[in-house]
Structures are given as structure tokens and as C-alpha cells.
Amino acid sequence: MSDIFPPLLTPLHYDYMLRAIVVSGLIGAVCGFLSCFITLKGWSLMGDALSHAVVPGVAVAYALGLPFAAGALGTGLLAAAGMAFVKARTPLREDAVIGVVFTAFFALGLLLISINPSGVALETIIFGNILGISDFDIAQIVVVAAATLLVLGLKWRDLLLVCFDPHQARALGLNTAVLHAVLLALLSATTVAALQAVGAVLVVAMLITPGATAYLLTDRFSRMIGVGMALGAGTSLVGAYASYFFDGATGGCIVTLQTLIFLGVFFFAPKHGLVRLRQLARLRGHEAAQPAPARTPAAQS
């Protein structure tokens, strides 16, 4: 036993690994909570859009010597507002609006980086840098995570109704425009927080996969939130821990683990898994193929 456990505990002996593991778990919990709403509302593309739309904000923040989270949040909120504005005033479908806005912001970010290549660490934006995160960045993430969890905890029922049936929400007197804006703001802030952990490429996975996995495991939204948060936090903790032994990207380890769990649930979930659905389909086909019982004279009368 003593020969097995010390090597497994080696990552916990390094301060940078402890910080990475704890911060990853916190980000994973917030992303898991928010991903339930994204899955329910069908906002998968929105998460992808915001993860790319923050790039110009990061470039500007680096050039001005500001915290990159401030610039990323600013352009994230601007992109979200732009999408809402264009969608409300044109007949374009939401996916088209998202595609136009996020590609425009991403292109602007790449242009700014190409103009001032020494001012921005492009690899940090794309892949994240959780192992080198500073105390100031940790403080920012904690504030964002605490605020997001507080708002979601207080307003999750209202946000659920807005996502599920906005017309019913308006009929009940809820301000759907404000709640919609709140959800976009939380999504933008969480995207910025996760950006530092896994980068712009993989942040969308952390914002979608836990909720999608939880959706296949339960039909109750309250339980879905619990499962999504547990999956987000657990996979982030284990992924960050395992990245030490694989000597690989922390974000890659986290998202790969989330994907493997999703695939397992996709095939073997007790109610909505592919294996179970095929069993039910075969059972229904077998029952339909059975000849109907003959009706007796007494039954006919």
C-alpha cells in the first residue's frame, strides 16, 4: 500500500497543481449548473459563439495592460447584446445570427493579435493556462463563480420557465427580457472564467456536455442540476489531477473525461440510453407480431 499511494498523491505536493485542481473543480461546478439551462434552451451554438467572441476583448486588454478577463467579459456581453439586437430586428434564424456575430468578433480578435503579436499569448487564449493561473485570476474566477451560483440558485425556477415556455412566463408576470439578459450575462461571465481553464476551443464542451449527460439520466430538472454540477465538478477535479500523470493539457483531459462519460451514458443510461431504447423497440415489435387472441362466443356476445 505504501508503495502505491505516494506516487498517486504526488500532484498534491505541488502548489500549482492544487490551485489548478481546486479552480478547475469550481469552474466545472458552475459550468455544470449553467449547462442545464443551455441544454434545455438549445443554446449550444451560443456557448460556442461567446467562447470565440471574447478573443478581441482579450487582445485589447493585453494591449492596454488590463486583466484579460475584463476585456473578455466586455466583448462577451457586447456579442450577446449584438446577437439579441439583430435577432429582434431581423427575420434571420437564430443560428444564422450567432454565426455572423461570433465569426465577426473572432476575426476581429485574430486581426488585433496579428497587428500586435507580441502583446497577446494566442496559445493561452486558445488552450487556457490553468497551471499558471495567478492569484488575481483566481480571485476573479471565485467572484464570477460565486455571483453566478448565487443568481442561478435564487432564480433557477424563473429561468427554467423562461427557457421552457417564455409565453407562460410572460403570462405569469415575469420580465422575460430581463431574465433573458441575465442568462446571457451569466453565460458570458462563465465563459470568461472557463476560458482560463480550458481555453476558447474547449470551453463550449464544459458548457454543454455535463448538462447533456444529465439530461439523459433524469427527467426532473432539479435532479438534472445536481447531476450536471456533480459531473462538471467531478470531471474537472479528476481531469486536472490526471493531467499531471499524462503530462497533457489540463483542458484536454477534462473534456475527454466528460466526453467518455457522455458516451457511456448515451449507450447505457437506464431509461434514455441507446441500448435500453433498442430493447424497448424490440419488445414492442415482438408484442405487435403476436397474433391477437381468438374471441370466444361469450366474448362476442
UniProtKB/TrEMBL annotation:
GO cellular component entries: ATP-binding cassette (ABC) transporter complex
Keyword Magnesium belongs to the record: no
InterPro entries cross-referenced by the UniProt entry: ABC_BtuC-like (IPR037294), ABC_TroCD (IPR001626)
SUPFAM superfamilies given in the database record: ABC transporter involved in vitamin B12 uptake, BtuC (SSF81345)
UniProt keywords, alphabetically: Membrane, Transmembrane, Transmembrane helix, Transport
Subcellular location: Cell membrane; Membrane
Membrane topology: Multi-pass membrane protein
GO biological process assignments: cellular response to iron ion; response to zinc ion; transmembrane transport
Cell cycle keyword on record: no
Family: Belongs to the ABC-3 integral membrane protein family.
Name of the protein this chain belongs to: Iron ABC transporter permease
